[in-house]
Design brief:
mainly alpha; 5 helices
């Protein structure tokens, strides 16, 4: 029994090997193949570009969603009149419907409404936040309405 390998031991060893794959260290005096730096650069660049495109697509979809939510709020407030508590009711109901999501506070819904009011043309949110003058990657979508005022871009042409 002492030297026997059980199925559980083999499974445990296989799992730990899969969790922490290691490559043999390069021995002193040995060299990396000449082709390897090119492969690493190519794969790294492909991964970076893919991640960048995925983030840009997600950002674009969020901007479009926020603009559409803002437009819906504007339309409903126009129909129901001021004081109808559209934003407060919507905020409460969205938080109930999406309990694990964030961003549905009355303040954020007002940002969305301001965004749609600042740019009434739906094509205006197609360019993405990074094309707006004065923006940096650290700014959020909530900066859009403020930037329209700061840079005199109330109406895009």
């Amino acid at each position: 029994m002492g030297g026997e390998l059980t199925v559980a031991d083999a499974s445990s060893r296989a799992e730990s090997a899969d969790d922490d794959p290691r490559f043999p260290e390069i021995l002193p005096g040995s060299t990396m193949p000449a082709w390897y730096p090119g492969l690493l650069a190519s794969v790294s660049d492909r991964i970076w570009r893919g991640q960048h495109r995925a983030l840009a697509a997600a950002n674009q979809e969020l901007l479009s969603t926020y603009w559409n939510v803002g437009r819906d709020i504007l339309e409903r407030q126009s129909q129901q009149g001021w004081g109808s508590k559209v934003i407060d009711r919507l905020s409460t109901d969205l938080r109930t419907q999406f309990p694990d999501a964030r961003g549905f506070s009355p303040r954020n819904l007002k940002y969305m409404r301001s965004f749609a009011a600042a740019w009434p043309d739906p094509a205006s949110c197609k360019t993405g936040l990074h094309h707006c003058p004065g923006t940096t990657r650290s700014r959020s979508w909530k900066s859009y309405p403020t930037l329209t005022c700061d840079y005199g871009m109330r109406k895009r042409q």
